[in-house]
Design goal:
Helices cover about 50% and strands about 20% of the residues. An eight-stranded antiparallel beta barrel has the order 5-6-7-8-9-10-11-12. The chain has a three-stranded mixed sheet with strand order 1-3-2, with helices on both faces.
Length: about 600
Amino acid sequence: MLATQLPVLFGGLAWTASWTLVEHRPTSDLLTTLALTLVQALPLLFLLAGALSLVPPRARTRWVEQRYGLGPPELPDTAPSSALDRRAPVEDSLPDVHDQMRRFLAEQAPGTELRVSSRRDLLACVYPGGRRTARIGVFSPLVHLWVQDRQAAEAVLLHEVGHLRYGEQHVAGLGSPFTGLVRAWPYVFAVFGLLPVALLFASGNVAAPLMPAQIVLVVLSVVKVLLIVVGALWTAELAADRHAARTAGQRMHLRALNALDRRAGGGLARLYHPPVGVRRWFASRTERPSAQLLLVLLWPAAVLAGDLLDLFGAVTAYRLLGGSYRAEATRKAVSLAREQLIAGPVWWAMLATIALWPLIAGAWSRLWGWRGQPSDAFSRAAYAASALLPLLALAVGLLPVGPTAGGSSQQAGDQGPGVAATPPAGATALPTPCPSRSRPPRPARPEGIPSFSDARLSKDDGTARPTPDRTWSFRTLRVISVQPLSGSLTQAQDVADRLAHVRWTLTTDGTLTADDADLPPLRTTAVHGDTRLLSGERSRTTDVSVTTVWMDARLVRPPTGHTMRLDLIRTATGVTHAVVACRAFDSTVTTAARLALQLAAR
């Protein structure tokens, strides 16, 4: 599902880069747009890399062993006696300890290979040795713990065995792109997110159209992605703790966690490993239904938190746009969130996965090399209870709502003019004439809708604007992006569908028209190099309504290539005045969408 978002992000990134090159002098807002597009793409690239790591596990194995200095252990019959004479007391027993660990793993997880390292910053980690094999890396502190408290050290190894029982060595452990995302993200976000935004504010160009709202949405989308990643990593760690506590015993596993607590790192390590206090709580309650339920709920809870962040971000973005958006920000955001909830596949797929997982858990484990049903599988009651959360979310999304976010409707008898109000109690009702049918006035362009503007392009220097040397014909190659500004996502997508296969004509007088697209002709307002700004307006009237469509466009032709980029902002406002049963009804509905198209010359 996340990978399906990559084409839109790549398209936006490519066209933002081409727009920057066309301008020749990149401005701070263009550079910020480019940087924020990279910020949105990078988390998805990491997640895609996590999925692709299933294909070439050998490459990751070689990198991990070189990076952490992991190699085959020394066994008693292969260790040179001259070397043993010079070792410290713990080092003297290294071959025996390694042999004991190897035999313990052969009993608990047949086929798992042991690798050792002299590094002192880790205890043990699992990583893939192949598609159906795994390796466990053991580091110097675990050797010391094995000598001092072997049962606690065995619990540490059993925790790693818990990972490989579900094939988690492919997406977690050493060399994991998921933990790499968490580790690298603060630096990536500082360079590609905070620094460009700081430059934008320093340049005094904070009034760039849509820029403040876009910054809010980008920052929250990053947190949303991290929520799912962190939720997945915490689920894996707590499930592995559950296996270790059930196999070694809760007391031994708690001793192992105490040893880990003395070496636990802070900062970012707390994101891809749960706090030790949380792990102790789960380890002491492995048999209780509440622990199982909370563990299974981590995934839908992370998605729900992400949806709530989307709602908060939409409200904030609408308010930052100002104008009519500020007054209706919450209603617009709720309408958009509901549309995405019921139209998107995430919650439906989650519900299906939770419902089917008890049936396919054994096959999943065998797929990654583990034979038989895992002995620590969760009860079906835990999955049944956890399915209530996506069911509740979908039920809320399917509930009927009032007017859409794009407009409002009111009865004139209640709030609008033209109908006599209900007389107060005790008063004599006087006869009032029925309101007359009349055509409503033409609406004004809504406030807060962005438009394409550039000081260099809009400056009137008294010279004639360049016109095309001939008539050009184009066709829509693809729709790069669709962004609803007012109204629902379905309404914006409907506009995109109508433009997906349109044929365009740019005449010598600078007019751009679209065949069978129900768009007003767009006339050139400014030209700078290969960039052309256009606008158009059209009104249609009936006996009871007036609908006006405003179009702002930016046509960019890169110096090289046969394609062009067309950015559109389409705004439509419909005003209706109807009289039914001697009562007047007035309504105003506004929809707006921003689209980016790639055009190809015919």
